[in-house]
């Protein structure tokens, strides 16, 4: 079970605060804060109010987060490189957990009706590629390239949040909160990488909603490859690959040239030698680290969270009321459900 101490700790880590920094901001001793976070003592009402204010949340939010089924600070599915700093991805993981709880807090007051849903599968019974094909069929997606990928995911009720992670070594992370999935993507990445990340995290949400598996990263990658580049359509296009052909395919499919090479190799359309030669050609042009054409691809821009904020504003709610319903201490702290000024009534 979650606890108030876990809620305070997660909120502190999401902001990048040390215990000493939060204790000073909230006007409590570090020793007292340590006891609060380890559930050795519950803060009195006045101290809890100061802690909530320093953390940018409301007291009801902290108490609600502390009573969630299971743990609040769950491990997130994360697409990251092995060299990513633990301090950075732990902070991002805490931020995602906080967003999960804000979504949960708001959904206690507001219902979200999605056009579709994100189905879940047991990866033991369902192959990752088969799961991707079934999702495409359930969502009635057109054959071929996935246009506006983020909009498809949001239409299934997944709140996607785009932020600059401050590092290029972490691409995205995701997790479920009750019946609502939440995903964070790194906007510092090029569009083709963002699209692969969204497909990868969608694979995690579909395949690993309950228990992780030893091959979960490989499964999510295979899901993303089939979801974004269906074998039935792309296989004939992968023969006789050249750099020029890779350029054309990148424009068509919206994925990186390296992802297309890997797809061709995984489908056994090209040999390992051909794969190595293509990578060598990319390296000779300096394209292993920064590929061309990425800035020509249509951007993937999340809109669901803002749409929820605007729908609430259309109901006559003010910025402050929306923030409070989502568990933020004031409107300026609410970076999730933000409505445009024209939709907000005067307070």
Quick synopsis:
It comes from Streptomyces tropicalis. Residues 8-62 form the HTH cro/C1-type domain. By secondary structure, the protein is an alpha+beta fold.
Notes on the protein architecture:
With 347 residues, the protein is α+β, with helices and mostly antiparallel strands. Among the domains are: 1-73, 434 Repressor (Amino-terminal Domain); 232-296, no CATH class; 304-343, no CATH class. The chain is built from 16 helices and 4 strands. Strands 1-3-4-2 form a 4-stranded mixed beta sheet, sandwiched between helices. α1 packs across α6, α2 packs across α4 and α7 crosses α10. The longest helix has 22 residues, at 86-107. It is elongated, with a radius of gyration of 22 Å. The two termini are 39 Å apart. Residues 69-73 have low confidence and may be disordered.
């Amino acid at each position: 079970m979650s606890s108030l101490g876990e809620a305070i700790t997660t909120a502190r880590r999401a902001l990048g605060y040390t215990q000493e920094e939060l204790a000073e901001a909230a006007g409590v001793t570090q020793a007292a804060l340590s006891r609060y976070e380890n559930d050795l003592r519950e803060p009195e009402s006045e101290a809890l109010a100061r802690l909530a204010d320093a953390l940018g949340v409301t007291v009801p939010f902290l108490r609600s987060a502390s009573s969630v089924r299971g743990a609040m600070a769950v491990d997130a599915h994360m697409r990251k490189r092995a060299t990513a700093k633990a301090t950075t991805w732990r902070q991002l993981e805490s931020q995602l957990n906080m967003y999960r709880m804000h979504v949960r807090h708001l959904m206690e007051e507001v219902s979200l009706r999605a056009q579709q849903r994100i189905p879940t599968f047991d990866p033991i019974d369902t192959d990752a590629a088969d799961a991707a094909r079934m999702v495409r069929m359930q969502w009635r997606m057109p054959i071929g390239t996935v246009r506006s990928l983020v909009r498809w995911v949001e239409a299934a009720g997944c709140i996607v949040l785009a932020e600059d992670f401050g590092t290029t070594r972490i691409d995205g992370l995701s997790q479920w909160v009750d019946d609502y999935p939440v995903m964070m993507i790194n906007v510092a990445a090029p569009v083709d990488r963002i699209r692969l990340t969204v497909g990868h995290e969608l694979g995690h949400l579909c395949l690993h909603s309950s228990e992780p598996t030893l091959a979960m990263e490989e499964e999510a990658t295979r899901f993303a490859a089939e979801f974004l580049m269906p074998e039935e359509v792309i296989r004939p296009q992968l023969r006789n690959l050249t750099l020029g052909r890779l350029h054309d395919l990148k424009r068509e499919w919206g994925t990186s040239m390296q992802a297309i090479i890997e797809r061709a190799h995984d489908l056994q359309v090209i040999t390992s030698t051909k794969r190595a030669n293509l990578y060598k050609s990319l390296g000779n042009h300096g394209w292993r680290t920064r590929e061309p054409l990425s800035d020509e691809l249509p951007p993937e821009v999340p809109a669901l969270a803002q749409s929820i904020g605007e729908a609430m504003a259309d109901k006559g709610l003010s910025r402050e009321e929306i923030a409070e319903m989502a568990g933020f201490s004031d409107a300026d702290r609410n970076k999730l459900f933000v409505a445009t000024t024209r939709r907000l009534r005067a307070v």
